[in-house]
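[job 0417] fold request received: Hemin transporter
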Amino acid sequence: MFSPQSTEVIRATLPVVGAAIGDITTLFYRRMFDAHPELERDLFNRGNQKQGEQQKALAGAIAAFATLQLEPDSAKVDLILSRIAHKHASLGITPDQYAIVHEHLFAAIVEILGDAVTPDVAAAWDEVYWLMAETLITMERGLYQLAGVDAG
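[job 0417] inference complete; emitting structure tokens
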């Protein structure tokens, strides 16, 4: 769950973020792949990138996670995160890669939404991201342990 302050900010800004999420994720991937071409080369399906499928998946996951945290349905949250964690584990995603995603995702959010990203808005969406990321990291760690392999 989000902090009470973040809950109100997320509830108020979810429509704005949701309306811009396609532009945000397109810019995010461009920025991240420019800075880390090895991620595109080694981890991402180039066909899904070209067709925009990965962008849609990320946008949908973030929006769904935020929405479900506002109107908690733990079964739906667990299902969404389990699917993502299994995909990430199949690719060998590592915890440090979440910081890379965060850096480029938040730069894209600020660039697209501009002055709408006040310190309170940034803090609230930062909370969304890290709550989701930390949950996924924990789930992925468990999957790696079950498989007897290390991340990456």
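[job 0417] notes: Residues 4-35 form the longest helix (32 residues). Residues 4-147 form a domain with the Globin-like fold (CATH 1.10.490.10).
[job 0417] exit 0
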